[in-house]
Each structure stands twice: as structure tokens, then as C-alpha cells.
Amino acid sequence: MSLPLNALTAISPIDGRYDRKTQSLRAVASEYALIRYRLIVEIEWLRTLASEPEVADLDALSADADARLDTVLEHFDVAEAERVKAIEAETNHDVKAVEYYLRERVADHAELATASEFFHFAATSEDINNLAYAQMLADARDSHVLPQVDEVLNAVRQLADNSASMAMLARTHGQPASPTTLGKEMAVFATRLERQREQFAAIAILGKMNGAVGNYNAHLAAYPDADWPAIAAQLIERLGLAPSPITTQIEPHDFIAEYAHALARLNTVLTDFCRDIWGYISLGYFQQASVAGEVGSSTMPHKVNPIDFENAEGNLGVANALLTHFAEKLPISRFQRDLTDSTVLRNFGVAIAHGHLAYASTLRGLTKLAPNADRIAADLGDNWVVLAEAIQTVMRARGVPGAYEQLKTLTRGQTIDADAMAQFIAGLDISDADKQRLAAMSPADYTGNAEAQARALAARRS
After folding, report:
1. Tell me: the pLDDT tens digits for 205-251?
2. Residues annotated catalytic, as ranges
3. CATH number of 126-372
4. Rounded to whole angstroms, what are the CA distances from 185 to 24, 100, 160, 365, 382?
5. What's the burial of 406, exposed, middle or buried (CB within 10 Å: 0-12/13-18/19+)?
6. Residue-range domain boundaries for the chain
7. Tens digit of pLDDT for each residue in 116-153?
8. Nearest to 241 by CA among 129, 123, 135, 120
9. Which end of the chain is more exposed for a tag (fewer CB within 10 A), N or C?
């Protein structure tokens, strides 16, 4: 049985279950987008050639010809892309189909019809494809990934600032540890995300236009006196990219590996964040706003599950599986090239879309969170044992022998309250001033400079 394609019959959940949430990516990461980016490359290559005096057989384009090329691009919609696909069905070649489509669309314009032999001039398919994918990567990063990441990052920063002074029991190995503040722990994630975000944003996106094996063979055969590396660089920079210095038939894709690894690292930090938030929700440190009509369990009516952070973690995992494969596979190509990169590159939008879902889920989850101050304070009040670190450190500093061992005997595996701790402090051979200072300390006071670290996050941005 063959079913029509729609959101229910789509094989990928990106175009099925999550169709509504990923529609904005279609303009940059779909088959339509790839064809459109190829069209841009072909048009800009013609313009670049027409502006080069050494290409003597191609006149400079008139304003009217330039405007017509703009019109072709402006009117390129899904119906026009279907015409390209129809040509591809005849040629069995997707890039050549774009060239033939352009020839069709300018055939009634005398000047461009004459110039149309210079569409795809001296270019191999990979010259067009690598620049098309490079534009896709750049636009996906700058118009979609970074704005979403920045929204998440700003929400984490705000949470860090709002809870900078909220003392909280830390946990190492899942066990009670020296107190911190909720804001400082959020500031750790904000700082980590900032660093990975900046590294991802700084990845140079490269391109090449140097022919069948990267030597400008055909270019130089036609116009031996032209400075083809400079002409190619002019095109690449017009597209907002950086020239790849030396290549085979393909741009080696090393920058795509850098891009994928950088994004995967960012996603990994966000995964760690989502897991910690999940844990804090489980401990009751965060309350989640319930959504009217939403069901947390098919059998347990009371449940408000941390589904946003779970959904984000799952989607980040899928995204990183693909990104890691891109980074490991794409820089490898037999001799001047093989075609194993083609099908891999076509899945780029899938990786970006799963990240898109994850960032949206994380942000949605953060908007539902509210710190549960009573629960956090109660957990601190039940764990006076964490002051053992402070007391034994003062004892050691004052020369009391066996300080660590004494506190270990008192506290390890024991339930210690304020009275037991006060009694122990009173019996120490240290100064009265030290005794008074330690006796006045509670777990909520023992947070070091955690608040200052959380506040410093906001200060660094002001």
C-alpha cells in the first residue's frame, strides 16, 4: 500500500510529528533550499565573470540584465524548484538541471541568452555544491541556531542572577556536599555555553571554485592570463564565505567537521544542563508550572513530568549522533573525490532540526521553572554534616592533631544536627573566637564566594 505524504505518513519525525515546529528551517535546510543556493552560486558566478576584463568574450552585464537575474531569484518558489526537478528527471544530474533551468529563464532576454554559455563556466558540480552547502551552513548557524542558543543562554543567565544568593546543598557523587548557591551552579552552565557558543560562531565557512581537480585547468585553458584564484576568491567572498586555500575536486570538508564538532560540544554542555535540571526537579528544588489540559501520566493524575528537558536531551542526542558522523566521515574522500559525501550532506538539515527542537524544548522548560526555596532550605537544614569540612579545616590550620579523622568519626554515615555540631565545636582546643565563628555558622552560610561568582556573570556582560 502506498500512502500520500503528509505529517502522519512522513518517515522522519522532523517532517511528521514535529512538522509544525521545524517549518522555519525549510527555507535554509531543505531540497528546495539547496536548489536555491545552487541558483545563487550560478548567478553570482556569471556576475563575477562578467565583471572580469580578462574574460574578454563576456561583456559586463547591463543594469537590466542584473535586474532580470535578481527577478529569477526573487521568483524562485517551490513551483520553480519543481521545474528544476523535472529537468533533473531528464538529465539525471541535479546540478546540470540548475544550469539548464537558468538558460530557460533567461532565453527571452537577448543579452542574457547570449551570456548564458557562461552559466556554470569551467565549473565542476562540486564547485556549485560546496558553495551551496556552505551558504546553507552559514545561514542555518547565523539565522537559526545562534539566535535560539542565545535565547536559552539568556534564560540561564537570568536564572543565575535571580538565584545568585539562594544557598543550596551541593551534591558530589549524588551525595550531600559543601553548600553552594543555585545561581552559581546556573552560572557554571551559562559560562560553559557562552564559550562553546563563541567557538561555534567563529568557525570559518569555506568554499572553492577551482574546477575538476582544483587546479583551474579549464579556466586557464580558456583565459590563460586571468588571475583565476583572485576571481574565484571574489565570488566566494561575495557569498559571505572564505576561500579554501587548496583543494582536490572537492572542498575537503574539514571546516564542516570543525563546525559539527563545535556544535556537538555546545549540544553536549546543554545535555549536561538538561540532566542537572531534571535532577533538581526530582529533588524538589524546582517546581514546574502545570499546563491546563496537559497530562503527566496515563494512570497517575498528580504527575508534572520534566518532559521539556527529557525531550531536549533526546533530540540533542540524535543531533550529536549525526554531527559526529559528519565530522568523522566528511573529511575522508578517496583520491580527488568520491560520492560518499553526497548522501551524508543531505542529512545536514536533519541534525539542525533536532537541535532546533532541543533548544525550543529547553527554553520552554525554563519558562516553567520556579525555585522551591522552602525545599532547598529544608535540605540544607537536614545536612549540618556538611560543616565537617569547615570545622576540620580550621582545626588543621590551628594545629589540632587528627582533625580530619575526628570529624570522620563524628560524621561519616551519621545524622548530625545543629546541637551535635555545636557540642563538638565547644569541646575543641581552639580559640574562643574560632569557636564562636564556627558555632554561628549554618549550612546556609557556608557557601564560600558562590554568590559573587554568580553575580560576576552579569557583571562581565555589563
Report:
1. 999 999 999 999 999 999 999 999 999 999 999 999 999 999 999 99
2. 173, 297
3. 1.20.200.10
4. 33, 58, 7, 17, 21
5. middle
6. 19-121, 126-372, 384-442
7. 999 999 999 999 999 999 999 999 999 999 999 999 99
8. 135
9. N
